[in-house]
Design brief:
With about 120 residues, the chain is mainly α. About 50% of the residues lie in helices and about 5% in strands. It has four helices and two strands, in the order H-H-E-E-H-H. The protein has a two-stranded antiparallel ribbon. Strand 1 and strand 2 (about 70-75) form a beta hairpin. The radius of gyration is 17 Å and the shape is flat.
Length: about 120
Amino acid sequence: LPPDFPEWIAMWIMDKADDIDICTGQAKELSISRVTYATAQKMRAAISHKYGRDHRLGTQPWLEDSLRPGHFRGNPSLSVTVSQYMISLGRRKVRAGEVVTSARAMDEQTMKELYEYN
């Protein structure tokens, strides 16, 4: 895979989820639909799975191979580039008013029900 592949992944997610147009760098028209942050997370998870399982790149982060400079190893969707973009996207979605719920968020009642169930 090319060294800039993580940037391609971030741009793919940006094209669907971000308020910024990747071609112009300007704000998208309000008539152009955008996916939620949850959907953007699912997009990243899907590509992580694809490269992790189908291409056998696993869950290792995308890093330059120290023995072969210019060549990268690992899963490109787990790169610093994609991670930083997702964090930035989440912050901007919250600032824009979208309710972003953590996949791990639980309220007291849910925790109690789980405790009683187990």
